[in-house]
Amino acid sequence: MFLAGDAVQLIREPVLDALSGLGTGSLRESFDAVSAGGARFFVSGMSSKARGVAQSDLDGKPAELAMPNRLVQLAFEAERVFTY
């Protein structure tokens, strides 16, 4: 999953613990479930820099900072790509 724009803040611990969507439930529960299933998170390096998200926010998570060229590479390698 590639997080960009304001979505990069979703990787922060306080947001993971506090956010709960109507009809979608706890972000923490969803994050933990998809992480346990082997998901990887790619967090836009440019969006992160603009919003103060640091490498320390990713530590201990299956996540890495990534630049736009990594997003293009992932899209070409993927069997399926969709946006919700």
DSSP E strands, number = 5
Shape: globular
Proportion of helical residues:
40-55%
Strand order of the largest sheet: 1-4-5
Oligomer: single chain
Cα distance spanning the termini: 11 Å
pLDDT average, as an integer? 94
Order of helices and strands: EHEEHEHHEH
Structural class: alpha/beta
Largest pleated sheet: 3 strands, parallel
Figure out the total of helices.
Answer: 5
Radius of gyration: 13 Å
- Low-pLDDT stretches: none
Number of domains: 1
> Into which percentage range does the β-strand content fall?
15-25%
List the helices and strands and how they pair.
Blueprint (H helix, E strand, L loop, with lengths): L1 E2 L9 H6 L1 E2 L3 E2 H10 L4 E4 H7 L3 H4 L4 E4 L1 H10 L7
Parallel strand pairs: 1-4, 4-5
Antiparallel strand pairs: 2-3
Structure overview:
The structure is a single chain. The protein is of the alpha/beta class and 84 residues long. 44% of the residues lie in helices and 17% in strands. A hairpin with a 3-residue loop joins strand 2 and strand 3 (25-26). The chain is globular and about 30 Å long. It has helices spanning 13-18, 27-36, 45-51, 55-58, 68-77, and strands at 2-3, 20-21, 25-26, 41-44, 63-66. The chain contains five helices and five strands, in the order E-H-E-E-H-E-H-H-E-H.
